[in-house]
Amino acid sequence: MTMPYSIQIINLLASLLLLIAFAMLSQRRILSLINLFAWQGLVLSLSTFVVAYSTGQHHLYYSAALTLLLKVLVLPWLLHRLMRKLNVRWDVETLINIPATMLVGIGLVIFSFNLAAPISQLSESITRGLIGIALASVLLSMLMMLTRRKAIPQVVGFLAMENGLFFAATSATHGMPMVVELGIALDVLVATFIFGIFFFQIRETFDSLDISNMEKLKDD
Amino acid sequence: MIDLELMALLLAPLTGGLLLAAFGSRSWAAELNSAMSFCTLIAAVVLTIRVIDSGPQVAFSEEFFIDQFNVFLVALTAFVAFTTSLFSRPYMRIEQHHGKLTIPMLHLYYSMYQLFTLAMLVALTSNNMGIIWVAMEAATLTTVLLVSLYRTPSSIEAAWKYFILCGVGIALALFGTILLYFAAERVLGEGGTALLWTHLNQVKAGLEPTVLKLAFVFLLVGYGTKIGLVPLHSWLPDAHAEGPTPVSAVLSGLLLNVALCAVMRSKVLVDGALGSTASRHFAGNLMMGFGLLSVVVAALFLSRQKDIKRMFAYSSIEHMGLVTFAFGMGGPVATFAAMLHMTVHSLTKSAIFFAVGHAVQKAGTQQMENIRGMMQISPTVGWGLMLGTLAILGMPPFGVFASEFLIITTAMHDYPWTTPILLIALGIAFAAIFGKVQPMVFGETTARRLPHQPALIPVFAHLLLVLILGLYMPRYLADWYRQAAALLGG
Question: Cα–Cα distance between B260 and B265 in angstroms, integer?
Fold first, then answer.
């Protein structure tokens, strides 16, 4: 049985999404991390476009355009700008034990696929099986947030998590209602602005963007 | 008609937010803040009367839905938001006088306060599960800068933790919402209606059980982070302790309820979908487990606290755990008790935070060992703190006693093994809190006078209401709660 081209393309893009999530997990340079995030946004936008084309759902074209605008252009631009202003453009983060993190990541992927298996069997839509990939990339981004000690990579992880969720919303289902998508996009945009404000507050108070300086609040 | 009332309810805080964004640095900003909150309260009262008279209704092409359950939270939210705005007027002026806040900070505070109210009201009244998520996230966004308002290292740390943890939590809730949509799409078809709660509620028996189960796990964990359920609670004590006290009061008294409301909306759907399967109590059992764990862990942590606001934050975790547990048990009595407990907890906890706020200002510290003899310097603050503490600890005749009594007797009947656990946890909490509050209220004092008259009317107004609810519950109120409990499938 041969699959239509559109499904093959979406599956390809889904695997690219997951691959980028892994690449982010091991990327030390913050600047490259932001570029990876932009690439992930592009993949997301393309897959939304293909779903829109193959199912003929017009509002998904808007979603694809919105993703392109927000996640490929605006957010990376904002992050680049912030890095210039904070003068941390060439920051490199020391990551401990990348192979172990990778192994945990693979474990998370297997876990997500298992969790999503009964759901994938139910779906008649052209893009079944993608919920597992979406969940995997959400969990990988979460793992990235956990392993990072600096503020900007944590935020990139946060935004990448949103990418995984958006992928679930557009590819596994055929897009949430437009009003919800717009609301989510607005929240993400505002969140990025607030994160930006926080970078300055953190730097001003702790003299660096290293979150590990923050350990005053503990329950003893 | 309901469109009009709902519009007033949402427009009042929106206008307030915009006006205060423009004029928040004027000297009358605090009065404007209270005035706008008062308008919201009036709109909420009108809406409540309308819904009690004519039952559940949808508004604005079904995007909003009001029934007895959420309208009671709307009324509570508007009321506590108003009294907190009254309290914050002198409180924030004293903070400014002490040099802890500047005019731009107050400007931010006033406009965000109104927008936060708006976000909560939208989350409560929206019929669209997606919009509920958006509004919950907006509620985080509006409060995160308020938690770091003082710009101290620990307040920035608390705000960052709040932002990141709630961000991750709420992302999981979005995944749950997407799964819900995935299941709904198969029944309701694509398009706008598949996320509308009223439509979902009609077809809930036909929703795919496996997907709904998974969706509920994600929704509970996601919104549970917001409720402060153990083990997802670690942001809560920090955010409550480090933010300004009015913010602690509304976070603790209101935001936690709103998140719980979202969980209950999901639970009704899951219960419907699983109604005919063997795992009928799946959602309820999960909630009972999380709730019980929260009560126990919070009670154990209470005695180790040194910071007064932190201690009462843990007490909030304990009480939200109790409410979650009661909702999890289900059935008319437990659901009724859970709603009553939500009401009295909101009123009492915000009253306590008001009294604590002024006590901290007088003592100049949040460390409990340095707060002494409040009764001597200011009997009203002292009594407020003491009575509030007695009320929250479930002493009769306050309303918390009535709701806890109902919850525990139901637990004794339906799940006897949980009763000793609950009783021991409540006992530990009593010993811990009372032992610490007692010397703060009585004894010798080192406290100072305040430059502005503290606002203690809200404290006693709240405590009076809690007392009345404990002594005598008006028939219409009981009917109202009973109807709401029935809507939740109790």
Answer: 9
Is residue A81 less than 8 Å (CB to CB) from chain B? no
Total structural domains in chain B?
A: 1
Distance CA B227, CA B248 (A): 14
Burial class from Cβ neighbours inside 10 Å (0-12, 13-18, 19+) for residue A104 reads middle
Residue B301 maps to a domain: yes
Q: Which domain holds residue B430?
A: 281-490
Does the pLDDT of residue B324 top 70, yes or no?
Answer: yes
> Which chain A residues in 115-174 lie under 8 Å from chain B, judged by CB atoms?
115, 118-119, 122-124, 131, 135, 138, 142, 145, 151, 154, 158, 161-162, 165, 168-169, 172-174
Dist. CA A194–CA A207, nearest whole Å: 19
Q: From residue A165, how far is each of A10, A79, A131, A159, B184 by CA, in Å?
A: 16, 20, 9, 10, 18
Going from the C-alpha of A10 to that of each of A47, A53, B53, B243, the distances in angstroms are 6, 11, 52, 46
Higher pLDDT, A214 or A145: A145
- The token pair at A107 is 């474990």
Report d(CA B466, CA B136) in Å as an integer. Answer: 28
Among B96, B151, B250, smallest CA distance to A197 is for B151
Question: Do residues B481 and B340 make contact, with C-beta atoms less than 8 angstroms apart?
Answer: yes
What are residue B221's phi and psi, to 5 degrees? -65, -40
Between vectors from CA A177 to CA B1 and to CA A16, what angle results, nearest 5°? 160
Contacts 24+ apart (CB under 8 A), A74-79: A74/A189, A75/A37, A75/A38, A75/A41, A75/A159, A75/A188, A75/A189, A75/A192, A76/A34, A76/A35, A76/A37, A76/A38, A76/A41, A78/A192, A78/A193, A78/A196, A79/A34, A79/A37, A79/A152, A79/A155, A79/A156, A79/A192
Q: B408 in a domain, yes or no? A: yes
Predicted local distance difference test score (pLDDT) of residue A1: 46
* Residue of higher predicted confidence among A199 and A90: A199
A118–B210: do the CB atoms touch at under 8 Å? Answer: yes
Distance separating alpha carbons of residues B204 and B200, to the nearest angstrom: 6
Contact B301, B314 (CB under 8 A): yes
Q: How many angstroms from the chain centroid is the CA of residue B254?
A: 3
> How big is chain A by its Cα radius of gyration, in Å?
18
Residue contact B171–A179, C-beta within 8 A: no
pLDDT in tens, A164-175: 999 988 877 777
Determine the average pLDDT of the residues in B242-264. Answer: 94
pLDDT at B96: 92
pLDDT tens per residue, range A66-117: 999 999 999 999 999 988 888 887 777 777 778 888 999 999 999 998 888 8
B190 touches A178 (CB < 8 A): no
The answer to whether ipTM exceeds 0.85 is: yes
